[in-house]
């Protein structure tokens, strides 16, 4: 049968991943380690066990796994989170990135990796694995601590940096020895333009599309539509010359800004887990155990180096931007492991024959060891932090306190700086509009070629498509160009007023400075556009036509262009600030001042067969039994803060617990315990209605519905009563039951049977039973 080998291989991969993941969980190691080990064991390089027959197709599925993995990472890379992290956090991660890169380059030179090989070698260790770090934090239960939130922030920013690194490495592969700093600068500029272009288009289209599909089609078709968008955007990104990972990551970031985020995340949860396992197992399939053993000493040495350098670089950089040293150190311990991005970097270099073939298994081996170390370091992070703090001399602690006070004063002074506050927003608008226009113009030729393949070259008249395409494109970019000029003019006016403040001839000098700044801004805009627009051949006449078109549009449509851009800006601002009040940067800021109390917060998700499902919090007695307290419940994306004792827990609830580490561990084990048998209650689809005859001897005769209380005592609902030819729908609570009535009861089959037996009992049986 065609394709049977792929089905068998996939069954082996998933079975191996499940078994290895379960074993790793038992020994408190990240399941990702188990996935990679499973791939190594069942792969074609392990001759005694080799079970995989169709490796190329597994690699194809691994690419799909990469797409879904990057999408899930993107869902955590919310733009609101990035804004709340602040400039200081971004600078800290950039500093750690630079320190790690230069130390890794030095190690590469020692090991003999020079030139492009040294660049690829150093790139392997500059970015942590978001997948591994998030799983480690969830398994250890430190996601809601300050250090855990810092670690997640570091992985968020490093994920964005990783896309830039991947693009630069692609440039090395394409240009080879001809690559230089100008080429790298152009590459980064084009990448930024593409990201802004795709991001703005996505923020305008995707939320609208999700709303329409959600209302008109329902959750099932919405999930299918998002999957189609995901694969299409990944393919478009690849066609634009970038990695599949970029498109997937972008869509995840865009979806994270929509109200449908939790629904989509829940819908893709199973698919994400499935293909993530396939991706990491596929990485292991490419590894020869013999090569790992052959390079065991370098792998161990490099792993120790990576842990020390990444922990030291992250701690130092975060502390320098004003983060508390203890939190910075614990965050550094958590972001030690490398993973998916490092595999992509190594594979790219090996395929391009720019690095030795053994670099890929070395990267996998280092990932395995750093992941093992990360689990241990995260669990013992508190003790290690206390030990390191005890070694710190008093003068260094005092200097650190003075330094943080100085940083706080600088931040306070900047927040009070009126000039900065007035110009900050306009600078951001200018940069975003400039990147948007650059993206449209840089990728215009590719868009033109696509339209030409679809519509033909001679649309309406010879070479008509080119004329129509560039005319329409220029009208599209005209609105952001007007916005750039308006913002630049406003800043010129502002700076001229500030520069001449207090001067005796301010009224004369300020207009001169303002005019000079406007001329400077206009010259920069002209040079910028001339470097992007085509000027060779017939394109010169096209450029003249576009200039005339721009003058006419500005004359007749100036107000309309400003209005269109204002609407676009408001729409984007709404997307960026939606649900702004939700605290996403840190779940428990109120715990920070009380670290000495040894309290922490951790969460767990109740399994479908949890023994505690359907029970109230006071029934579980978590505080008296284990000492921990339920302080929050997240249910289907809705947060229930400080639930009362009468709150009921249901399957898939995310429960937030407060207590000491030991109390939290015991409480989570209790809440996640599952019963070996399915619940006794019938499924929702089994609920039905049934007519129950009331005989004259029934114990129900003469009882009113409020006294009977069938919902509470019998788990059934009386939907109607048929009495002497009259049907009483939804009877009131003061209706009594008479002999000969037919009760229309609603409930599960077993409850209906029990209620029917009760109705058929004689009234005297109740006395006899008593």
Describe this structure in words.
This protein has helices spanning 4-26, 31-42, 55-76, 79-111, 116-123, 130-140, 146-175, 181-216, 219-239, 244-255, 261-267, 269-285, 289-294, 296-320, 325-334, 340-351, 359-379, 381-391, 394-416, 418-442, 444-455, 464-499, 506-532, 539-577, 617-620, 622-626, 661-671, 705-708, 710-714, 749-759, 763-769; strands at residues 600-605, 629-635, 638-641, 654-659, 688-693, 717-723, 726-729, 742-747. The protein has 770 residues and is mainly alpha-helical. Strands 1-4-2-3 form a four-stranded antiparallel sheet, with helices on one face. A four-stranded antiparallel sheet has the order 5-8-6-7, with helices on one face.
Architecture blueprint of SSEs:
Blueprint: H1 4-26, H2 31-42, H3 55-76, H4 79-111, H5 116-123, H6 130-140, H7 146-175, H8 181-216, H9 219-239, H10 244-255, H11 261-267, H12 269-285, H13 289-294, H14 296-320, H15 325-334, H16 340-351, H17 359-379, H18 381-391, H19 394-416, H20 418-442, H21 444-455, H22 464-499, H23 506-532, H24 539-577, E1 600-605, H25 617-620, H26 622-626, E2 629-635, E3 638-641, E4 654-659, H27 661-671, E5 688-693, H28 705-708, H29 710-714, E6 717-723, E7 726-729, E8 742-747, H30 749-759, H31 763-769
Antiparallel strand pairs: 1-4, 2-3, 2-4, 5-8, 6-7, 6-8
Instruction: Give me the count of strands.
Output: 8
Judged by helices, strands and strand pairing, the structural class is mainly alpha
Q: What characterizes the major β-sheet?
A: 4 strands, antiparallel
Unreliable stretches (pLDDT < 50, length at least 5) are 578-594, 766-770
Number of helices: 31
Strand content: 5-15%
Distance between the termini: 69 Å
Spatial order of strands in the largest sheet: 1-4-2-3
**Shape summary:** globular
Q: What percent of residues adopt helix (DSSP H or I)?
A: 55-70%
Give Rg in angstroms: 32 Å
Mean pLDDT: 78
């Amino acid at each position: 049968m065609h394709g049977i080998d792929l089905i068998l291989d996939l069954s082996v991969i998933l079975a191996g991943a499940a078994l290895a993941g379960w074993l790793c969980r038992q020994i408190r190691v990240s399941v990702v380690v188990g996935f990679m080990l499973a791939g190594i064991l069942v792969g074609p390089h392990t001759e005694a066990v080799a079970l995989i027959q169709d490796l190329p197709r597994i690699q194809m599925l691994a690419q799909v796994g990469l797409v879904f993995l990057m999408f899930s990472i993107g869902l955590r890379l919310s733009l609101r989170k990035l804004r709340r992290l602040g400039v200081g956090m971004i600078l800290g991660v950039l500093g750690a990135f630079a320190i790690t890169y230069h130390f890794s380059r030095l190690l590469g030179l020692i090991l003999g990796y020079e030139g492009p090989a040294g660049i690829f070698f150093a790139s392997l260790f500059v970015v942590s694995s978001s997948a591994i770090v998030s799983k480690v934090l969830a398994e250890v239960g430190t996601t809601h601590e300050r250090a855990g939130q810092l670690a997640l922030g570091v992985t968020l920013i490093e994920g964005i940096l990783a896309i830039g690194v991947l693009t630069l490495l692609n440039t090395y592969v394409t240009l080879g020895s001809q690559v230089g700093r100008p080429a790298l600068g152009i590459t980064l500029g084009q990448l930024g333009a593409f990201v802004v272009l795709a991001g703005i288009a996505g923020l305008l289209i995707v939320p609208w599309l999700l709303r329409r599909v959600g209302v008109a089609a329902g959750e099932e078709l919405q999930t299918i539509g998002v999957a189609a968008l995901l694969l299409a955007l990944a393919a478009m990104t690849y066609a634009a010359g970038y990695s599949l990972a970029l498109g997937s990551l972008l869509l995840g970031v865009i979806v994270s800004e929509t109200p449908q985020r939790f629904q989509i995340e829940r819908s893709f949860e199973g698919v994400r887990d499935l293909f993530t396992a396939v991706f990491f197992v596929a990485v292991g399939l490419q590894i020869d155990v013999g090569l790992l053993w052959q390079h065991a000493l370098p792998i161990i040495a490099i792993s120790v180096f990576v842990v020390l350098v990444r922990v030291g670089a992250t701690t130092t950089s975060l502390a320098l931007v004003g983060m508390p040293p203890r939190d910075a150190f614990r965050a550094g311990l958590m972001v030690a492991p490398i993973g998916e991005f490092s595999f992509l970097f190594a594979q790219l270099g090996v395929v391009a024959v720019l690095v030795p073939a053994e670099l890929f298994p070395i990267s996998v081996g280092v990932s395995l060891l750093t992941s093992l170390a990360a689990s241990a370091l995260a669990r013992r992070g508190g003790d290690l932090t206390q030990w390191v703090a005890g070694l710190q001399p008093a003068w260094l602690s005092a200097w650190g306190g003075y330094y943080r006070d100085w940083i706080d004063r600088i931040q306070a002074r900047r927040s009070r700086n009126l000039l900065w506050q007035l110009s900050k927003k306009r600078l951001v608008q200018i940069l975003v509009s400039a990147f948007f226009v650059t993206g449209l113009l840089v990728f215009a030729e590719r868009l033109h070629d696509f339209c030409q393949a679809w519509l033909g070259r001679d649309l309406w008249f010879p070479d008509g498509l080119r004329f129509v395409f560039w005319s329409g494109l220029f009208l599209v970019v005209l609105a952001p160009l007007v916005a750039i000029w308006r913002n630049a003019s406003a800043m010129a006016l502002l700076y001229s007023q500030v520069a001449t403040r207090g001067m005796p001839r301010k009224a004369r000098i300020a207009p001169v400075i303002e005019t000079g700044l406007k001329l400077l801004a206009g010259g920069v805009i002209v040079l910028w556009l001339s470097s992007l627009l085509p000027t060779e051949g017939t394109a010169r006449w096209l450029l003249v036509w576009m200039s005339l078109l721009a003058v006419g549009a500005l004359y007749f449509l100036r107000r309309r262009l400003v209005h269109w851009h204002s609407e676009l800006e408001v729409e984007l601002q709404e997307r960026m600030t939606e649900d702004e009040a939700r605290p996403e940067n840190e779940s428990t800021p109120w715990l920070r001042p009380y670290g000495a109390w040894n309290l922490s917060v951790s969460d767990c998700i109740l399994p479908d067969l949890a023994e505690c499902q359907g029970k109230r919090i006071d029934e579980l007695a978590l505080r008296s039994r284990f000492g921990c307290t339920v302080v929050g419940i997240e249910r289907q994306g809705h947060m229930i803060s400080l639930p009362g004792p009468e709150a009921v827990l249901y399957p898939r609830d995310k429960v937030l617990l407060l207590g000491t580490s030991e109390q939290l561990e015991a409480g989570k084990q209790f809440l996640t315990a599952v019963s070996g048998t399915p619940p006794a209650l019938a499924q929702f689809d089994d609920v039905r209605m049934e007519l129950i005859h009331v005989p004259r001897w029934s114990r129900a005769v003469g009882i009113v519905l409020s006294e009977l209380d069938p919902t509470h005592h019998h788990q059934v609902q009386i939907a109607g009563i048929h009495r002497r030819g009259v049907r009483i729908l939804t009877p009131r609570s003061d209706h009594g039951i008479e002999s000969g009535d037919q009760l229309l009861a609603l409930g599960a089959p077993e409850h209906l049977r029990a209620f029917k037996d009760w109705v058929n009992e004689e009234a005297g049986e109740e006395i006899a039973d008593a």
